[in-house]
Design a protein that fits this description.
There is one protein chain. The chain has 256 residues and is an alpha+beta fold. It has five helices and 13 strands. It has helices at 10-19, 54-66, 122-128, 133-143, 155-160; strands at residues 36-39, 70-79, 82-91, 94-101, 106-111, 115-120, 147-151, 180-188, 191-199, 205-211, 218-223, 229-234, 250-254. The chain has a 13-stranded mixed β-sheet with strand order 1-8-9-10-11-12-2-3-4-5-6-7-13. Strand 3 (82-91) and strand 4 (94-101) form a beta hairpin. The longest helix is centred in the N-terminal third of the chain and has 13 residues, at 54-66.
Length: 256
C-alpha cells in the first residue's frame, strides 16, 4: 500500500512557489547533481531485484526514502520558460534549504511543525509584492535578506514550506503510473543503481535510479519533456542537525 498523493508537475510547482506572495503553495541542490552513467548489467549481483517487478522496486525505494529520518534533496527544474533550483535538508520533522528561480530571486526556509522561518532576497520580495515601487522599497529595506518568523498555521507559512513535501517522494508521482520498465544498471554519485523508466506526464520520459547496494533508496529521478526536471536524494541517515535561525537574526514575527 502506498502513501502517494496526487502530484502536480514538479517544474510548475517551483514556478508557483516563486510567483505567489510570501512564497507559494507548490514544491520539489543547491549544487549540480552528480552525473548518472549507465552500463549493461553483467551479473546477477548487479541486479538484486530480479524477482521483483518495476512497480514493486519503485514502491520499496519510495518507502525506504520516505522513512529515512535524515536526507538531502537537490534539484533543477524548468517550467513556463523559467529555470529553477532547490536544495533541501530533512531532519524529520524539520526541513531547511533554499529555492531560487530565474527572474524571481532566492528564498531560504527553515520549517518545523510549529514555526516556519523564511528569508527572501530583494528580487524575490519584489516578485511577491503587489504595491507601488515606494511601498516595495520600504519592505525591501526592512526585511530583504533577513529572517521572518511565522506560525506554521498561517497560509503564507504553509505556502513557503510546501516544497518540504519532497521529504515524501510519493508527491512526485501521478495517481496512476504508466507502464514501467527495468533499464540498464547505472551509477549515481558513485553508488550503483538500477533504472526504472516510464512515460512522463509532460510528453517525455521519467527515469528513476534505485540503489542496488545498501538500503534501496531512490537516488535520482529525471524527467524529460516540456518541463524537464532532475531530483537527487543523497546523504541518507548522516549525523546532522538542522538549527533554526537565532532570535537575534529574526526581524519580524507573524502570528506568534
Amino acid at each position: 500500500m502506498s502513501t502517494r498523493s496526487t502530484a502536480v508537475p514538479v517544474g510548475a510547482c517551483l514556478v508557483a512557489l516563486a510567483l505567489t506572495a510570501c512564497g507559494s503553495t507548490e514544491p520539489a541542490k543547491g549544487g549540480t547533481s552528480g552525473a548518472a552513467s549507465t552500463s549493461p548489467s553483467t551479473s546477477a549481483a548487479a541486479e538484486p531485484y530480479a524477482d521483483k517487478s518495476p512497480q514493486e522496486i519503485q514502491q520499496i525505494a519510495y518507502e525506504e526514502t520516505r522513512t529515512a529520518s535524515f536526507k538531502k534533496v537537490r534539484g533543477q527544474l524548468t517550467a513556463e520558460g523559467k529555470t529553477g533550483s532547490l536544495s533541501l535538508s530533512f531532519d524529520v520533522p524539520d526541513c531547511a534549504g533554499t529555492f531560487s528561480i530565474q527572474g524571481f530571486g532566492k528564498r531560504e526556509i527553515h520549517a518545523t511543525p510549529k514555526v516556519v522561518y523564511a528569508k527572501r532576497d530583494a528580487e524575490a520580495l519584489r516578485a511577491d509584492l503587489k504595491g507601488t515601487k515606494e511601498q516595495e522599497d520600504v519592505v525591501v529595506e526592512r526585511i530583504a535578506d533577513r529572517w521572518i518568523k511565522m506560525s506554521a498555521d498561517l497560509p503564507d507559512a504553509q505556502s513557503v514550506s510546501y516544497g518540504c513535501g519532497l521529504a515524501n517522494p510519493w508527491v512526485l508521482l501521478e495517481e496512476e503510473t504508466p507502464e514501467m520498465h527495468k533499464g540498464a544498471s547505472a551509477d549515481v554519485d558513485g553508488q550503483p543503481a538500477i533504472t526504472l523508466t516510464y512515460a512522463g506526464s509532460q510528453g517525455g520520459t521519467v527515469t528513476e535510479y534505485v540503489a542496488t547496494q545498501g538500503r534501496p533508496y531512490l537516488l535520482k529521478r529525471t524527467e524529460t519533456g516540456r518541463q524537464p526536471s532532475e531530483i537527487t536524494y543523497y546523504d541518507f541517515e548522516t549525523v546532522n542537525q538542522l538549527l533554526p535561525p537565532a532570535d537575534s537574526e529574526v526581524v519580524l514575527d507573524e502570528g506568534l
